[in-house]
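Hey forum,

I'm writing up a methods section and want to include a predicted complex as supplementary material. The small molecule is magnesium ion. I've pasted the protein sequence and the SMILES. Can someone with a working setup run it? I'll credit the forum in the acknowledgements.
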Amino acid sequence: MSNQAQPFEADQPVQDEEAGDQLAPIEAGEAQLQASLAARPVPRISIQAFCEDASTAEAIQFASEDRRLSKAHVSIHMGGGSAAVAHYQESPTPNLIVIESLMDRDAMLFELDQLAECCDAGTKVIVIGHVNDVVLYRELLRRGVSEYVVAPVQPIAFMEAVSNLYNDPDSEPVGHVIAFVGAKGGVGSSTICHNVAWTISEAMKSNVVIVDLDLAFGTTGLDFNQDPVQGISEALATPERLDDQLLDRLLTKCSENLSIFAAPVVLDRDYDISADACEMVIDVVRQNVPYVVVDLPHGWSAWTKRVLLQADEIVVTAAPDLANLRNAKNVFDLLKQSRSNDVLPHLVLNTVNMPKRPEISVAEFCQGLDVKASGVIEFDSETFGVAANNGQMLEELNRKAKAIPTMHELSMKLTHCNEGKMVQTPQKSALAPLLEKFKLTR
Ligand SMILES: Nc1ncnc2c1ncn2[C@@H]1O[C@H](COP(=O)(O)OP(=O)(O)O)[C@@H](O)[C@H]1O
Ligand SMILES: [Mg+2]
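Reply by user p_vandermeer:
Happy to help. Structure tokens for the complex are below, copy them as they are.
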């Protein structure tokens, strides 16, 4: 075995065909879905992996392209533990070292002891081994190894292991981001976004912040009958200043569990949103609430694309016509390709059965996209029109409105919880002091 670190070439062939199969994008199998949900974004750390097996290197390479590792800098080398020991005798160690070992217990521990001698304080180590051995596992933990993963390693399992090291398992997980976008303008994306956010906050008693990124024309303030602080533009202008206190000042509270980060909706300025600023703002919000619901305007720019690619869940709302189908297909194709470790975006067909309008049927629309619709909402100008004009949610206006069950089902799908369960297990108060401030001051 060479003890020189060889860089891993991502496109080198995988020798073992079975191992190659393990790298297929996930098809929302239950175990993988759970692992995918458990893996949370990892901060800006450096990760250096020293693999023995090409399939392990490829799995790590695949994981490193995932949105949750997008901030981390991952480099992959071949040569295993001996290459790592040789390398770190001359170079500083990164935040996280991943060592694959083909050795038995004693040889592996001996090599890790050598590595420990050249490891800087604060560096964490994950070991990937080929033996399933509890004694070995205990010995590794005793030596300060953070995690032992038995090969063959799946990209999603690797990501979960890394994520667990950087997200405190004792506190609530970092908030989930749910992004809503329309396949065309005016298809009801914002209306559905606001109603779903409201349902999560009311029926599930979970804290939600709506981030309205339609800066010039957003309707969040109107829909909740609020005259909001124009918070979001200040946050986007100086995202590095945004902390818990400032966020608290910039949010407008609509109810006990729902706050909005409202758009300024004035035209006296240009809105050039930077993708980085947008990501920073959403990151701060997600540290403070379990659900961040992002209302995106219809459009395509660097920042809208970034928000979609980074979101935990995506809802694409479309009306049943040809242009919507074409646009939705483009959006789905891009998202499927770039987010292969994630569940598919959700399709909602809205304004279905509008009188006198020729429509593409729901079945044909879904067939065109090769997905099932997560919701189908009929055209109902009376209910939607009155709710919009009153600044009310549909359910506040009429609990029997036909769209209500769909809003509830969508809320459950997006949060992966059922309503009863969430009501009985309220969010831990440890999450953030900010949650306390959300309680209405009467
Ligand atoms: N199912 C529906 N039936 C009738 N009107 C609807 C329906 N869904 C949305 N609307 C109305 O369509 C208009 C545009 O909705 P909006 O949510 O602002 O669209 P988008 O955010 O996609 O531009 C609003 O006046 C809204 O009340
Ligand atoms: Mg909108």
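Some notes you might quote in the supplement: The chain has a mean pLDDT of 87. The radius of gyration is 24 Å.
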